[in-house]
């Protein structure tokens, strides 16, 4: 594969409001060189996530290339990168500390990379990595649910079922044999959750506890809160079963009382942050590549499906800005993807 000397990239300007049309700009940058355990990936499609909007550079920081979901081809292999060859189709979420995937070429540690599902195109594959890793780690690493069915029949409440993480989380929990209840507030998002395998869908904008009880779920063994931690804190304490487990992914805005029902019920509360392994270079760093390979196998076997909802155009500054604004509105279903690069 011939590698050019320069590449297109979408770079965010530090301290500029997302409402400003110039908050991100298309620039020409040098193509990085793969060394050590890195792969150089020719990026074909990217997906947008809430984390992208949270790490935009603030005033005083350096301008940044963002993007933490991608699918593409291996263009070059570092001397210590094992198991990959030039031309391999891959997908990954990468490392939040490094330049992101909103560029024609990106360096990523090979241990964080999986082989893209053979049954999917670039856009469908790009929708998966970050949310699949977050959902898998939440359910199976943090909550300790057995992915192969040993916990079949137990119940789980997925808060934020129609979002990117919730969409894959519902499928993984269902595939593991759990009884899945998901929250959604609009007819279209409720329908989406049911199509993914939720046994029941309850409206989180109303009396969640009453709705759960009316559906036969006065309490649940597990809660995966993929939405607002503060808003559901007390409700989760009342809904989780004694000796149950709760996983959280959204940092609270204030202090949370750790006693009450959580203490009386001896509840386990755990956190999931998908970038922990890469940020701290943990001994099990390569587990993320293993997880992505398992997800790809399940996708190709028809056990799971892509959560992509929309291909919102090519990878351009205007389209990336538009996607950031839509994510911040908080009403997205599934994943929004950008695919391909303009020729101009």
UniProtKB/TrEMBL annotation:
SMART domains membership: PKS_ER
Entry-linked CDD domains: AL_MDR (cd08252)
Top-level taxon in the UniProt lineage: Bacteria
One annotated GO molecular function: oxidoreductase activity
Chain ranges of the Enoyl reductase (ER) domain: 17-338
InterPro entries reported for this sequence: ADH-like_C (IPR013149), ADH-like_N (IPR013154), ADH_Zn_typ-1 (IPR014182), ER (IPR020843), GroES-like_sf (IPR011032), Lipid_raft_assoc_Zn_ADH (IPR052585), NAD(P)-bd_dom_sf (IPR036291), Quin_OxRdtase/zeta-crystal_CS (IPR002364)
Keyword field: Metal-binding, Oxidoreductase, Zinc
Alphabetical list of PROSITE patterns matching this protein: QOR_ZETA_CRYSTAL
PANTHER family: PROTEIN AST1-RELATED (PTHR43482)
NCBIfam families reported in the protein's UniProt record: adh_fam_1 (TIGR02817)
Family: Belongs to the zinc-containing alcohol dehydrogenase family. Quinone oxidoreductase subfamily.
Protein name: Zinc-type alcohol dehydrogenase-like protein
